[in-house]
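User: Predict the full complex structure for these chains.
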Amino acid sequence: MNGFTRVGASPDAAFTVDVDGTPVPVVPGQTLAAALWAAGITAWRTTRGQGRPRGAFCGIGSCYDCLVVVNGVAGVRACLVRPEAGDVVRTHE
Amino acid sequence: MSETADAAYDVVVVGAGPGGFAGAVAAADAGLAVAVLDAGSAPGGQFWRQPAAALRARRPGALHHGWRTYAAWRGRFDAHVASGAVAYFAEHHVWAAERIAEGGFAVHALAGVARSSGRTVTAATLLLATGAYERQLPFPGWTLPGVVTAGGAQAQLKDSLVVPGRRVVVAGTGPLLLTVAASLVSAGAEVPAVVEAADPLRYARHPGALVRNPGKLVEGAGYAATLARYRVPVHTRHAVVEAHGDRWVEAVTVAKTDRAGRLLPGRSRTIACDALAVGYGLDAQLELAVELGCETRREPDGGWVLAVDDEQRTSVAGVWAAGESTGIGGAQLALIEGELAGASLAAAHRRRTVRGAGRQSPAAALAAGGHAGRGMPGVAAEGRASPATAATARARGTSVAPSLLLRRRSRLRAFAAALQDVHPVPGGWTDRLRDDTEVCRCEEVPLGAIRDAVTELGATEPRSAKLLTRAGMGWCQGRMCGTAVPCVVAELTGGAAPSAASPPSRPLACPVPLGILAGTGDGPAPRPT
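Assistant: Here is the predicted structure of the two-chain assembly.
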């Protein structure tokens, strides 16, 4: 049993999104943070001061820890954005 | 960056969680023109956050409580959207709401997570249903990847059907922990333990509140049964000591505490995990209301919320509020408050129509008159029904007589107060901080820096500490560290730091690109050429 089977989800096939050159599978409708978690990735940014790894923390768009650059637009919260096929994601400084 | 301005509505609702969408439906039922600005992708807020259509979930309610209730309300909301009575703007993040010269309010929002354009909506009245976010307390290792908030783990599960790890420890305090753990195991994650700081025996101090809310007891028993079925131990009076790991969390040490929250020697255990979901209750999201001057009050657990009357009116004429922002109490209570607010808004607008054209503009007359006296006949006093209430209510288009709603609100509020007494912000957590433990995540401000601000630089209260260290000045604007920093400063100053008189002022409720800020003038901005 997993989240998908629990709700009886039957989405179209996953597409991949380029995250700093690594292809990450995204199921249509998922948030980028969830897709990264599913791929075993829990950090995709380093902090400005100490260079420490950060990923999604609050999961609801309040903490701004999960910021990424999507298609050239900075300051996008990965826990809210739903990627589309072909999106290019770069991690923030 | 473009900016669109909309013609005036009768009411703008900020937030489409249970408080917001119930208010919108009740107002639209009564014939008001409603605009809803919602940060979410679909109505439901955090509680009923659900998979996007593209995931084609056949049983979207499987990870939810009360789905049938939601589905009924959603049907009514969608019908109003289809008929044009409600204009629903999804993925709109409101950054400011201001009174405008012509009377009424202008609400400014960013459209989309990429924040590429703005929208300003004006209306005679405002219903704020901005919800809450999770309260956090720092501990060594809390910034490790894989440490997430309990509510956030559940939000991403409800939304995108993914859990944050294979072995997730759930920790902190509050009723949310049980439902998060139950959701996680039902979605296939292993939950080695639920670590709850509170002492459940404290529930025995609230027999009245429990007896008045049998539904809540049944709900709680349901979560307990799920956890028992999956053999998830719940360790009560246990605190998080430290999260361990090099590049991500690999284990967490927890320990039993005494009644004051101090660790008991020899009672700690280290639990292997690849994720830690942590939370300490909810804090209301009040930025917009505070800027409008709405009066606030403190809840039993110290959190700030908006002060409202029986009709959900704030202290500012023309501004109503419903849901967690008026008192943390869950989705059921939020629905009731939304319905009360919608009915009150309808009555206020009817008075404006009856009064007819006057020297004041309709919007100004409404905004001023909406707060004069009681709005709804039949609302004699909480709990006392008036004879014509039901008939009046039906004539006015409310689903349930107001006095019935008030009785339900009263018992749910009693239950919420009981929960806050059982699950206060635990004592002793500051003992676990080390000098290099970040207290402010955004600005990476460690305890040592705050201590220096107090002992070396003379900061005597949280605001000076903030200005000297930048704690609370990062992207999240103090949401994650807003409870911790005053506590830490109070401890460092020997408890001399006075409690803040009101919540902090945040003129921008969320980060706004300069171009959009520049394009938003006084009142609604015309479309730029």
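Chain B touches chain A through 58 residues (CB under 8 Å).
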